[in-house]
Amino acid sequence: MRNLFELAGRCLHQADVDEKLAVTHLAWSLYQQDRLDIQTDVAIAGIEQTRFPERPVLKRPRAMPRRKFTTKDGVSAMIHAFAHIEFMAINLAWDMLYRFRNLPEQFYLDWLKVAEEESRHFKMLQELLAQRGLIYGDLPAHAGLWVHAERTDHDVLARLALIPRCMEARGLDVTPAMIENFKKIEDFASADVLTTILNDEVGHVKIGTNWFNWICQQRQLDPVATYQQLILHYLKQKPKGPFNTEMRIMAGFSQVELDWLDND
User: Helices 188-218 and 169-184 sit at what angle, rounded to 10 degrees?
Assistant: First the structure.
């Protein structure tokens, strides 16, 4: 199997964590060897066919216990939460390239790169959990991210606005403080992993921004107004700050967009 979209289906439509990682690495390796087929004439299964492991138990975000840096269990729960976000990000990147067709080849290669980097992030977090005697799935996790994917499975522009340009961009806002918290408790290994993730996520959000703007141009839409409309349509309100202005600008946000987000 060397077709990118068949590999995407293989990753998305079975639940095993290790198999999802293996397929991701295989696809990236085939691309690096110039052996990856990117013909798009592969049937698209509904997003309801996507499978996830039985564990972790998924809860509504508001039902999740509060995680604090003041206890060993709280720190472990924080690392597990990051692992869950990165695991879901692997699936989100694969679904982005699998579900939306008739786009330039670079679109698919960009999201394959994102999937590979998210899988590396997840592996690093798995190692941190193992050092604490845990594996991914031992603790509950929230189900929020995939809900947004399901709601935007019909339109790539909505998906780009809601996932990389909203949910993932939020990581640029909150992760620096998390890194400092890990440093304060002298957990420098976790701080280093989160620093790697943060630096890569700037690139992921920028990829989302670049394609959002490109598709708006193709559809003859104003990107700023379209972003605002999509965010308000799907979230009913603007994301809450504070926002990491410097990193969001690095990730392609315009000053006009940042002013809109900041303006109550």
Answer: 170
CATH number, domain 71-262: 1.20.1260.10
- Which alpha helices (H) appear in the chain, and where do they start and end? 4-12, 17-32, 72-99, 105-131, 144-151, 156-162, 169-184, 188-218, 223-235, 245-250, 255-262
Distance CA 163, CA 234 (A): 11
pTM to 2 decimal places: 0.96
Asked if 251 and 209 count as a contact pair (C-beta separation under 8 A), the reply is yes
What is the 3 state secondary structure string of 96-165? HHHHCCCCCHHHHHHHHHHHHHHHHHHHHHHHHHHHCCCCCCCCCEECHHHHHHHHCCCCHHHHHHHHHH
The C-alpha angle with vertex 26 and arms to 23 and 31, in degrees rounded to 5, equals: 130
Q: How confident is the model at residue 1 (pLDDT cuts 50, 70, 90)?
A: confident
Which residue has 């504070």 as its token pair? 242
C-alpha to C-alpha distance for 247 and 199, rounded to whole angstroms: 9
Q: Which residues have a Cβ under 8 Å from the Cβ of 95 and sit 6 or more positions away?
A: 8, 12, 47, 50, 149, 153
Instruction: Report d(CA 118, CA 111) in Å as an integer.
Output: 10
> Residue 24: how many CB atoms within 10 A of its CB?
25
Cross-strand partners of 180: none
264 Cβ neighbours under 8 A, 6+ residues apart:
none
Residue 49 DSSP class: G
Specify the residue for token string 């564990």: 55
Residues β-bridged to residue 59: 142
Alpha-carbon torsion 127, 83, 179, 72, what sign?
A: negative
Per-residue pLDDT tens over the stretch 141-187:
987 889 999 999 999 999 999 999 999 999 999 999 999 999 999 99
Longest CA pairwise span in the chain (Å): 53
